[in-house]
Amino acid sequence: MALCKYGVSKIGPKIPDNLKEFDPSYVTRYAITAELIKVASGKDVKKVKVLDVGGYNGAIRDFLPGCDITILDMVDDEVTEKYVKASGADIPFKDNSFDIVISCDTLEHIPADKRDKFIQELI
Description:
The structure is a single chain. This protein is an alpha/beta fold and 123 residues long. Helices cover 24% and strands 14% of the residues. It has three helices and four strands, in the order αβαβββα. It has a four-stranded parallel beta sheet, covered by helices on one side.
């Protein structure tokens, strides 16, 4: 398993009990993403600033409680804390404003002619 060298468990990530009733593929993607953030950050995850582009439902927060996470998506949402309505192809933050930028299950929703711009914005 290629991810093992980065510290992700061979038997899979720990799934919080409150999420075990959700679609396993969905939960596993976020659990692995959270483990990779912990490994990549090299510091207390609560001190890491994360931008989740296309993360409308805020699922990553269930796996990284206490982490400073901003959600960016194009869906209207006046309830979610630290939520910004914007396009991932035109992120309204200065470069290097976040320690880590993630985007799960998003690229297939981006028109093919805008994918290069989207990926460049994430980088």
